[in-house]
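Progress against Task 2.4 (sequence-to-structure conversion) is shown through the following example record, which the project officer requested during the mid-term review.
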Amino acid sequence: MKLPVVSGKDAVKAFGKLGYVVIRQTGSHIRMKHQSDRSKKPLTIPNHKVLGKGLLRKLLRDAEITPEDFNRLI
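Structure tokens generated for the chain above:
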């Protein structure tokens, strides 16, 4: 399935629905980690207007979700 074009802010909202919470922001980079499952990798999401396809694919891999699941969240 094709990856959607999303902003950093939209990605933060979508990952928030999966249980990730913002722990800090340094400049334009938002750091999130999973609230209950410590085995999931923390995510670093740049607060940009458009996230690159490679970065979005890596974020989905780190969060252990498919592009289809991500499309349902946004």
